[in-house]
């Protein structure tokens, strides 16, 4: 009896467990499929809302393009931004580190504090601008696409305002001045107001010469590290001697794959050699720039040049390597001293957050949202790094070129132009990302 009773009791418990498990599974699948449906519904809504405001964003972008302002002088741009964000009903802070503006969208307070950063300054340029809405200010142009960044940032703020009930956390729209001078991000991060924010995550993008709408990013370094050196020599030698020595230095310390030309940035977005190809020529290199500047004072020659390096671990070895080449040359007696005159950190994407952000986007775009990047682009950089030093952040590259329209969005290059379709893609994709990332989940 006892045994029988025990068996009976065991099977009763088993039944209970089975029922519980079944119920758990049903609840799990129903809630997961609800979450998935909800995700797709909000995604569709974002697409519609973006389409409804696209013309107005293009108007804003063209107006900014006609009124470009240099680093530190973004007065008009910041007023336009502040007015737009105020009209959306956001809390707006102005005058942060110069003309910086932050708009705060309060969603459900249970979520995270996520931020979107857009830079807003233009560059000195006399290139012929191929568009009809040309700059009205001589010698100043939006030759890096920051007018498009502002339009996308405002567009995301608008779309999120239209979908406030879906925003679980607080979203901060950071409009940063002085990117081109590499001062704005650092100044904003160090401002009293910013220090109080305690953000959980930060995101940004840059328009590039990828095909329009294509997005790419990678964990860790996005660009190469940059160092600028100065080497001083006495005047007992000729400029020709220095030029020969410089060639020797370049040949000795450079590390590039055979037959590859990582300094050719026009190849950075090439489908087979560029950063989105596993065969890219833009990984694992060190090169010394071909050109150098030679200043001559009464007592010395001062050679100045740039070094580009993909590996952080090698950075501190560069000057000793260069000095080793000089010491083994005929000019060793004429060499006085060498030092770095400029050292820029590089955009450094948080590894876990990059993976999470890509996964979020892939969940609605069927794994096609973000192309994997395998390389680091030389010459380019972004002071977004200073935000990433304080807050885990991800920096995306967004394509703005369109071969069929004759548009190449190679930043700072002559004929730099952006296909405005990129504004639509940017607003759609990153509105969705911010809504999903604001949710209080890991
Ligand atoms: Zn730029």
UniProtKB/TrEMBL annotation:
Keyword Hydrolase: yes
InterPro entries: Amidohydrolase, Peptidase_M20
Keywords carried by this UniProt record: Hydrolase
Coiled-coil regions listed in the entry: none
Protein name: Amidohydrolase
Source organism per UniProt: Nonlabens dokdonensis
